[in-house]
Write a structure and sequence with these properties.
The protein is mainly beta. The chain has one domain: Metallo-dependent phosphatases (Purple Acid Phosphatase, chain A, domain 2, 4-Layer Sandwich). It has 3 helices and 9 strands; from the N terminus they run αβαβββαβββββ. It has a 5-stranded mixed beta sheet with strand order 3-4-5-7-6, covered by helices on one side. The longest helix is centred in the middle third of the chain and has 8 residues. The radius of gyration is 14 Å and the shape is globular.
């Protein structure tokens, strides 16, 4: 997993860090932007949602995006300015686009649950445009 973190401009974590020192370890690679997950302990200091601009791209983050049905429309309503919403909770990798919004759940590199591999997401942003988003296996 570390090979994907080396050289990163930023690390986005969609929650379920579980313990705060994990964010410190990730910060050794790049600045970390995280939201709090339902499995995070009291030492994980992160907001419930986060909106930021990365390389000119408007990004929103939330841990639990709710049920699959209506998710894109719900995220559009929740984050009307976002071009990308990164979320977690299910640990199931998802990459969907509609109505000028891309939503991405990168899965989990450490708790794959019922998935065949642990995964993470890689984003390439150039001049305010998400030019590449991919979910890669790491286990």
């Amino acid at each position: 997993m570390a090979e994907h973190l080396r050289g990163a401009d930023a690390i986005l974590h969609a929650g379920d860090v579980c313990v705060g020192w994990v964010l410190d370890e990730l910060a050794a690679y790049a600045p970390v932007h995280a939201v709090k997950g339902n499995n995070d302990g009291p030492d994980v200091h992160a907001p419930q949602t986060l909106e930021l601009t990365l390389g000119g791209l408007r990004v929103a983050m939330i841990h639990d995006s709710g049920q699959a049905k209506g998710r894109l429309a719900r995220m559009r309503a929740r984050f009307p300015e976002a071009e990308l919403v990164v979320f977690g909770h299910s640990h199931i990798p998802i990459d969907q686009t509609a109505d000028r919004l891309r939503i991405l759940n990168p899965g989990s590199p450490t708790d794959r649950r019922r998935q065949p591999h642990g995964t993470l997401g890689l984003l390439q942003i150039e001049n305010g445009t998400l030019t590449e988003a991919k979910i890669v296996p790491v286990t």
